Amino acid sequence: MRKISPFAPLHNPVNIEGIETAQRLLGNTPQIAVFDTAFHRNLLTESVIYPGPYAWYEQGIKRYGFHGISHQYCTERITYLLKRESNGLRIINCHLGNGCSLAAIRDGHSIDTTMGFYAAGRIDDGTRSGSIDPSILLYLQREKGYTGEQLDQQLNKESGLLGISGISGDMRQLYAAIQQGNERARQAVDIFVHRLRGCMGAMLAVLGGVDVISFTGGIGENDSNVRTRACETFGFLNLQLDEAKNKQSPADQEISTAGSEVRVLIIHTEEDWEIAKECWKINTSDSKKSPTT
Questions:
Q1: Does the active-site annotation cover 36?
Q2: What is the mean pLDDT of residues 214-237?
Q3: In the chain, what are the domains?
Q4: Statement: residue 291 has pLDDT above 70
Q5: The pTM is what?
Q6: Active-site position among 36, 112, 125, 223
Q7: pLDDT tens for residues 136-181?
Q8: Residues with Cβ < 8 Å from 21, sequence gap 6 or more?
């Protein structure tokens, strides 16, 4: 974890500190690290490798993907709710919150995802820009004298919904501002929906079709407007939302009509529960390997 900390400078160092603190307080009590990238270990090679110099890939610069614990939980929950096996099932899971990512899931495995080398990706979120033309960063460095620290601050803390609106990264506050006629708040939501649709289309193309679209996370679970606008552009797939049900934002339920050829669900993600299950699996496996006393 120390070796790869430069890849995740906001997360790994504090997690290592937590591990070391637990070791001091609890001694040799076993600790299990459940990584948010693990569910994406089966990504397509063409998704993993960035089209820069191949030396980047050899240095570990590649698409890792994040929100994997949530995407894994949602995949398992969907198969349970639909009483379907994961084999043959094509899912686009949309984890939309203060951080956002989509995953293309086939046969229970993630084959493509929007987040990449770090916890930023094609879609913007509360404060992150999502994918942008890298030439913008070169221009800002060359012509405006921006430092790496300044760019990091702007890309990760001052962009996305907050950056465009100038108000907040919270959709609820943006909707309130829109009601008062704030044009930048409306624009921030429009850009978010536009990018969300594009990312859903990309996942659709990778999967070669879709059986289930699911929404999770603070926005995904609670924002009926975003769900409606995201899905309406896929009417050509005969995707039909039950708008009355959609407006109720019912957790762990289907919100598409009986005649819809694409099932649409809202899933209340339970990342803590998914972590607990993974720990139980490892402990159970280890206990079987150990001699009984």
A1: yes
A2: 98
A3: 1-31 (no CATH), 34-126+171-289 (3.30.420.40)
A4: no
A5: 0.95
A6: 36
A7: 999 999 999 999 999 999 999 999 999 999 999 999 999 999 999 9
A8: none
